[in-house]
Amino acid sequence: MDMIWEFINFTVNIVETVIIFKYVETFFVKKYTENKNWIWITIISILSYSICNISENFLWKFMLYIIILLFVVILFEGNIGKKLVVWLSLLIGVIAIENIAVLILMVLFNQPVIVFIDNTIFRLVAILISKISLYFLILGYVNRKEHRLLEVKNKSFVVTLVALFFVNIIVIMVLVLMVYKKVNTQDNLMNIMVFSCAMICILAICIYESMLKQNNEQMDIRLLSQQKDLQYKYVNAIETSIDEMKRIKHDFSNHMMCIMGYLETNKYSDLKKYLTKLFNPIENTDEIIVTGHPVISSMIYSKIIEAKKGNIKIKLATSFESLINIEDIDLCILIGNILDNAIEACMHVEEDKREIMLCIQTKCDWFLIDCINRTKNQIFVRKGSIIKTSKEDKVNHGIGLRNVESIVKKHKGEIAIDIIEGNYIIKVTMINDYVN
Fold first, then answer.
1. H-helix or E-strand containing 389?
2. Nearest Cα to Cα of residue 196 among 356, 57, 7, 13
3. Based on CB atoms within 10 Å of each CB, which residue in 231, 234, 328, 367 is the most buried?
4. Architecture per CATH, 287-431
C-alpha cells in the first residue's frame, strides 16, 4: 500500500495546485501563456510533495504555504496585498472544508482523529470528499464570477459533472462500508479500488477542462461567424449605396428634366414626392460607417440599423492615433454589449430623448470607449462600486455588463460606470494590445 499512498499523496498535491490556480485566475491575469499552465502546476506539485515528505511539522507546512504564495506573486499580475488576501481566503476555505469532512466522518463512523492522520481508508475518504467538494465549489464560484467564459447551454455538460461527482461519492462510500463492516477483501482488490478513486478525481478535472476548452472554442466560432455576417451585411450596404449613387448620377439629366417639368406646370406637391423618392438612397448612405476598422464599422452599422427601429439616434465619434491591436472577437463583445445595453435602456425613455453618444479612440498605448445614453434611474442600482441591473431577470440582463468587465479585465483595463441626471455613462480604458 505504500506505493499506492505515495501516488495518492502526489495526486492530492496536483489537485490542490489546480484548485489554487483555478481560484487565483478568477482575480488576476497570468503573466505566462496558457500552454505553460501544466508546467507550473507540475513544478509546484512536485515541490509540495517533496516538502511534505521531508516532514509533517507545522513549520515545514508554513514554509510550503509561503513558497506557493511567492509563486502566485511571481506568476500573476496585480497588487501584492490583494494577492495575499486572495491566498488567505483560499487557505481558510481549504482548512475549513477539510475539517468539516473529517468531522462528518468522525460522527458517522465513530472514529478518533488519529485515524485521519494515519494512512487509512478513512484518511483517503476525507481527502477525496474535501478536495472534490472544494474543486466543485471553486468551479461554481468561477461560473458565477466569469459568466461569459463559462456559460454553457449544453445540458450534457452539467449532467456529466453531476454524474462524476456522484460516482466519486458512491465509490468512496463503498470503500468506507467495506472497512467499517470489516468485509473480507483481497489486498490487491483494495489497492485497485483505492487507485481507482484517485484516478476518478483526475478524470473529473481532465474532462471538465476538456469540455470547458471545447465550449470556449465553440463560443469563439459563433462570435467569428456573427462577425463575418455583420461584415457581409456592411459590405452589401456599401455596395448598394454605391450602386444607387451611380444610378442617380447616370440619370441626372433625366431627373433634371422631370424637375423642370414639375416646376413649369406648378405641380409642387408632385415635385416634393419625386425629390423625396430621389433622395432616399442618398440619405441611406448616412448610415454607412467609415471608421478605418472593418470590425468596428460593421458592428456599429448593425447597431445603428437596430436602433433606427426604435427611433434611437446614435452619434459616433472616432479618433485612432494608432492601429487597434485588440482581437476582433474582443472588440465585438465589448462594443456590441455596450451598444446593446444602451439601446435597451433608450427604449424605456421618451422618443424625443432616445439618443446614444459613442466615442471610440486610441491614445498612445490605450484603447478608450465612452458611451452616454438616456435611461430611467430605476433601471440600475448601485451595489458597491459597480452599477447593477435592478430588473427581475438579473441573470440575463447582467450578462452583457459582465462580458464587458471580462474583456476589460483581460486587457488590464478599468471600467467606470455612473448615472448623472438621467444619463447612463460608461467609460472603458484598457491597453491597446493583443491578448490571447
1. strand 386-389
2. 7
3. 367
4. 2-Layer Sandwich (3.30)
